[in-house]
Amino acid sequence: MLLASSSITYVIDKLEQKKWLIRKTNAEDRRVTFASLTSEGKMLMDGIFPEHSQAICRIMGGLTPKEKEEMIVQLKKLGYHAEKMV
Question: Does the predicted TM-score (pTM) go above 0.85?
């Protein structure tokens, strides 16, 4: 999400105020809270995501199929590394 962890609560609060998501506590671990899309949030994403997906396809169109496969491997590697940093 490219947000500092200190900003996540603020962003979640704003999305909740707009009725786009709700918080759900974890029954097994009360320290954990999940964010879940509301029906309004799903409708918003259903309207936004297709255009976003098309934009990504256009951008990736500059790569060959082999380059796309290599990109996927590298992005996964980067994601796993970033996850360990948190």
Answer: no
